Give the backbone structure.
Amino acid sequence: MTIAAAVLIFGGVALIILGITLANSTFFKVMFIIMSIAMILLGCVMTYFVFLLKEQGDEEPNLFLYDSNSGKNLSADVLTFDLVNKRMGFFMSRVSGSIKEIWTGNLFDNDEAFDGVDELKSLLAYKMIYDLADKDIPALWELYLNASPELISAIAECMRNNGDEFGKYIVKLHSSANGKADKSKKFLLDNKSYLENKMFNCAKNNIDKF
C-alpha cells in the first residue's frame, strides 16, 4: 500500500511537469494539473491510512508485553520479573499438556514449539529450575530426580546459550543425587535470586524476539 501511495505521489508530480512542458493549450495544461493534484492527494490519503493502521496496533503480540485489554504491546518499561515468570507459566501450558510432560520428555528438541527463538529455550530452562526452588513441592522435586540425564544436559545447554554456566552445577547435582533432593534443594534455594535475575534479563535483553 505504501508503494502504491508513493507511485501516485511521484506520478502526480511527473504529470504536472509533463502537462506544463508538453501541453499545447491552456485547457490541457489545466486538465493535467487537476489530474496531478488528484493523484497526489490520493497518495497522501493512502499514506495517512498506512500510518493510522500502524498506530492502532498492527503488530505481532509480544509474549511478555501484550495487553489483552488494549489489544496492544505495552512499553518494555513495564516488564518485571513477576510478569516474565507469569507469562512463562502461560507459555509452558501452551506448549505442553502438563508439567509432568515437560519433565519426562525433552521439549527442547522441538524447535517448532519455540518458533525458532533460542532465547525462549533459555527462558524455559530457567523457569523449570526456578520453579523447583520457588514452589518447593515434593512432586516437582520427584520429577527433577527422575528426569533423564539428556533433559538435564539440555537445560544446562540452554543456559549456556544465554552466556551462563549455572547449568553445569545442575548437571553435577542431578547426577550425584542418588534419589535425594537435599543438596539440589539447598543449592537452588540459595541461588533463587540469581535465577530470577538471569530469567528477567534474558527476557528484557531479547524482548523484540518474543
In short: The radius of gyration is 28 Å.
